[in-house]
TrEMBL record, chains A, B:
Domain of life according to the entry: Bacteria
Gene3D superfamilies: 3.40.50.2300, lambda repressor-like DNA-binding domains
Record keyword DNA-binding present: yes
Organism listed in the record: Streptomyces endophyticus
Keywords, in A-Z order: DNA-binding, Repressor, Transcription, Transcription regulation
Descriptive protein name: LacI family transcriptional regulator
The HTH lacI-type domain, residue ranges: 5-59
Entry keyword annotation includes Ribonucleoprotein: no
Length: 361, 361
DNA sequence: GCCTATGGTGAATGCGCTTTCATCCGTCGG
DNA sequence: CCGACGGATGAAAGCGCATTCACCATAGGC
């Protein structure tokens, strides 16, 4: 690897100008076949690989879309899993959320001729994410509040940005940042699920487990739950019955214990704001000899693969995460094709209640 | 979006030179705090986002690593899944192979300060992949034979490339392309698993199901199987007992049926070259009222999450896919840090037999 | 009080490519 | 036989940044 060959080298070797070399790659038909072959041969001999940077710089576009997502990784769980001790259910399942989005975006991006640049937010350097992603892509998606609002504000003035889940309009109330936005019908889904438990299964004593973080998604889910309860004349508190720190299996197991150990009769149904926690609860219940759904009903939210693998299979609300990734790309592509100054769009994807064994269906 | 601001605009607005603006981003400490603030303020006002392209061009590196993987997508399965009809087990599980690698690479890349550019191979334009990925990254990994050997040959002369799984040295025999290479101990794993069935469970009539494609991985697994059989004095054919086209659940189910319907006593154990097929076989067996493992033993290979969710849980060989992704990044990073002209490395990652219910453990 | 460090800054160059615009040559109509 | 015309190619001007190198001021050192 002395010095990597450039258009100049290829041009010289094939006896043409750099403009022609460029044409061979960008618009082969505009070059005489014979000339083209000469150039390609020279390129092959030299091991010429066009510089994406130079190309992007000169043409003012990269052909790459980006995705920023939060740093879910738990270093401890990670190393433990790597060590090969036991199966790593939590980790595998937990990742699927962002994985599905990646998958969806990748596929849609490919259809439109884009590649996908992914980066998890690093809490390190100040402008790390901006530099790493925003500067290298034509547009990108951000998972919830991965990127500081202020940065988003600056970037979104120059590049299409679509926010996935999370708040509709981040930023101060007086100066909101308006972005394209895609979310799922969290409230609708949970409302329907709760309604199902109440009306179809005749359950009345429901307990809801949400998260402590300020998550618009979880709030919306709880709101749906509340609405369904109110509609059925069931009293509900203003806040979830239990709030956990992280929405993991371990926390779900703990929350279940808390609810069962509470005063009075235990709830007939434990509703969790995600599947992870619900699965954790299943373990707790099994450990205590309580049968699901005969003794207690358990439900989740998300529809991760794990939810249908556990016994009993989990009744949950399926989120179309892959579709969300795809829609994000579609939106970005639309923006890049001349819709720059249209008003921000907000898309709400429908969810579906998946009735499985854990609610008695 | 009139014209996007550049260093020049920021420089002018803050009354400094472009060199200083550049310093503010690349090496903040080398600029007086007061000057720095001025610059950052101007940048904020203008909505300045440094151009990754220009940066990469000037500094001759991108800070991005790449991954090319095959286009697994099955459009039909896809749309069906999106339509929401039923759960989509096959799809979810099938993707995990590359997802795990992505995850591993992403994480390792992040640790080293790189972002990850992913692209599935498109059979379209000639130099698509090269242009899209190779030109934009500092180095990249290729999953098996995703990229035409000839392209790889050219690219690898200029960029670190590591091949994941697949052949050790692609290319013509007389002119092999030597790349860094990471694989798993396919033969070891299968040998150990087969040995386990023979010695620990006393099974003798084993049937192996592989794939028809020319896959070095599957070949290696079958070789391990063969060795274990020979070592135990059991006769085996030169080829798998059944070869399927794609290694899917459906094909696995079909293969199981074929084996059970064969002449004479049916095999005591069905060994599959991956988990997908084994899971499919489980369905077939259940449908016929055969108990696993009492009537038939079933094993897989890969250790995908699905393998432990099914009933009975599948005995299999776990591949450290995530680790493979991580090692790929480590290798690339090492190359990028001055090991350019070292001999190609080949790394074989250990696998582990996971004994679960489907073999009687 | 002169000379040398030292830290902060600006001028200028080049990274490798795309993209007009101009040029050249051969061809065709008159 | 001449000018117009069209296709293939070359010349040259950036694209936005990093990076010497030179420069200037100030701070010490003698």
């Amino acid at each position: 690897m002395t010095t990597t060959p450039t258009v100049y080298d290829v041009a010289e070797r094939s006896g043409v100008s750099i403009a022609t070399v460029s044409r061979v790659y960008r618009n082969p038909d505009s070059v005489r076949a014979q000339t083209r072959e000469k150039v390609l041969a020279a390129a092959r001999e030299l091991g010429y690989v066009p510089s994406g940077n130079a190309r992007g710089l000169a043409s003012r576009s990269t052909g790459v879309l980006g995705l920023c997502f939060p740093d879910y990784s738990d270093p401890d769980a990670e190393s433990e899993a790597e060590a090969g001790v036991g199966d790593e259910p939590d980790d595998n399942a937990a990742m699927l959320y962002s994985d599905q989005i990646i998958r969806g975006m990748e596929r849609a991006a490919r259809r439109h001729g884009y590649a996908l640049l992914i980066a998890a937010s690093l809490k390190s350097g100040p402008e790390t994410l901006v530099a790493k992603v925003a500067g290298r892509v034509d547009g990108f998606a951000v998972l919830a509040r991965t990127v500081p609002t202020e940065e988003l504000e600056v970037i979104s003035r120059r590049r299409p940005v679509v926010m996935l889940a999370g708040p509709r309009e981040p930023g101060e109330l007086d100066r909101p940042v308006r972005l394209d936005h895609i979310q799922v019908a969290n409230a609708d889904g949970q409302r329907e699920l709760t309604r199902h438990l109440i009306e179809d299964h005749g359950l009345r004593r429901l307990a809801y487990v949400g998260s402590a973080e300020d998550s618009p998604d979880v709030e919306a889910r709880f709101r749906g739950h509340t609405e369904a309860c109110r509609a059925a004349g069931i009293a509900v508190a203003d806040a979830p019955d239990v709030r956990v720190g992280m929405m993991t299996q371990a926390e779900g197991a703990r929350a279940a214990a808390t609810l069962l150990d509470g005063p009075g009769e235990h709830p007939e149904a434990l509703l969790f704001a995600n599947d992870q926690m619900a699965v954790g609860a299943l373990h707790t219940l099994e450990g205590r000899g309580l049968r699901v759904p005969q003794d207690v009903t358990v439900t989740g939210f998300d529809g991760i693969p794990l939810s249908r693998m556990v016994r009993p299979a989990l009744t949950t609300v399926r989120q179309p995460m892959r579709r969300m990734g795809e829609e994000a790309v579609e939106l970005l592509v639309r923006r890049l094709n001349g819709q720059e100054n249209k008003e921000p769009e907000s898309l709400t994807l429908p969810v579906s209640v998946v009735r499985r064994a854990s609610c008695g269906c």
